[in-house]
Amino acid sequence: MIRGIEASRSGMAVEQLRTDVLADNIANMNTSGFKRATATSVEFDRMLIHRMGDPTDPRSQEVGTLGNGSRVDQVVVDERQGDIYETGRALDLALEGPGWFLAQRPDGSLYRTRNGAFRQMADGTITTAEGYRVLMEAPGGLVPLVVPGVEPTFQADGTILADGMPIGRLALADAAPETRLHSRRLEASNVDLAKEMTDLIVTLRAYQVNQRALRVQDETLARAVTEIGKV
Prior knowledge:
There is one protein chain. This protein is an alpha+beta fold. It is 26% helix and 32% strand. It folds into two domains: 2-53 and 64-80 and 190-230, no CATH class; 84-187, no CATH class. The radius of gyration is 27 Å and the shape is elongated. 21% of the residues are buried. The mean pLDDT is 87. Residues 184-225 form the Flagellar basal-body/hook protein C-terminal domain.
């Protein structure tokens, strides 16, 4: 009985996390470059059950296997390409193909994003929507992209131009030879609202099933304690 309660509890925990992931997908369906995620689950290792040893019983003591519920295996990011649409804004960039824009957080760590809605600060520093400094490739490594006094333009291979002159190449992570940069465009999220809502309904139903099973087992255990004990 206690094992059944634990199996139901673990099932509810899995569906709760899956609901959180789906809710995050739906909340970011209008975020440029957002990639939907999926929570996958696996079954806990099964237990092999044996009867208590009885030397007078010639039958096999093995009863069978017992499930122990489920657990979240991993949250997988779906990196499929989103639709690319035109904005007309010079600092809006979209990647077609694999790859991520690279930026630098205030603590110096690297930040990867597909959201190319960049901004130019008063000193010419190009930043992401979150305010992190966009990076470019330089002979000494990666450096912040700073273009004072002029709005930069970008070519398909990532080359950065200032007043028509190349000043470097935009830093990209995990890009492939076929990756192309689109200027004055953004990549939409790859979230399909109809699919997310369908998955959310299925997840909520699975949560309710585990919830009912937990309630039935709890009621049965309560009766065993309060009624059978009186006999």
